[in-house]
Amino acid sequence: MIRAERDGATLVLTIDRPDKANSLTAAMLETLGDHVLGLGPETGLLILTGAGGKVFSAGADLAEAKAGLATSPLWERLSGAIAARPCLTVAALNGTLAGGAFGMALACDLRLSVPQAHFFYPVAKLGYLPQPSDPARLAALVGPARAKLILAAGARLDASEALAFGLVDRIVPDPLEAARQLAVGQPDQVAAIKAMVP
To answer: What are residue 119's DSSP bridge partners?
Structure first.
């Protein structure tokens, strides 16, 4: 369900449940969080991606969401761990990003997307609040009005709109390969630069 592949200083975590739109169970969230929290100084680049060519993640598994996963602290545990890492973190969005999966992507330093991806976070329509840290992270990227458009009004964006809004940083044919090709600096310098950028 979660694949971890290391290549030197790069760790790729892949959500591998394409038959269920890469929806996330509690066990998968816990595994992702454990991997991120366990990162040492040997990791200079962390990449999150999804299996298949259509969906990065549809968010919470529907059955588990109804049983309480939608409001679980595991989402914040994961996004908080990603945001706290001193290494460069990249969401390689191989397809659509939806619901609770926004949290891990928003917590990353960079978001690279395929042209055919869509973006929506319909929490208000489903009767939930977003993860506590998501509105502030989203507003920092797209501005407060657009954050409300996405979260409160449930707007659905295509990749070009997401790029124009600032939600994604680049549209590329192969986000995972593009992420792997990033020229990441020395760990100490990367951590220092991240600390300097508000």
So the answer is: 97, 157
Query: What is the tens place of the pLDDT at every residue in 87-135?
Result: 999 999 999 999 999 999 999 999 999 999 999 999 898 888 999 999 9
Count Cβ atoms below 10 Å from residue 166 Cβ, excluding itself. 14
Span 2-196: which CATH code? 3.90.226.10
CA distances from 180 to 10, 90, 114, 184 (A): 8, 9, 15, 9
Sheet with 110-113, edge to edge strand ranges: 2-7, 10-15, 45-50, 88-93, 110-113, 170-171
Q: What pLDDT is stored for residue 109 in this prediction?
A: 98
User: Distance (Å, rounded) from C-alpha 113 to C-alpha 91?
Assistant: 8
Q: Contact at 8 Å (CB) between 59 and 98?
A: yes
Work out the number of other CB atoms within 10 angstroms of the CB of residue 96.
Answer: 24
Q: Chain centroid to CA 134: how far?
A: 11
* pTM metric for this prediction: 0.96
pLDDT in tens, 63-73: 998 899 989 99
**Residues of 30-63 as b/e, b for ≥16 C-beta within 10 angstroms?**
ebbbebbeebeeebbbbbbbbbbebbbbbbbbee
Torsion of the alpha carbons at 95, 163, 82 and 64, rounded to the nearest 10: -40
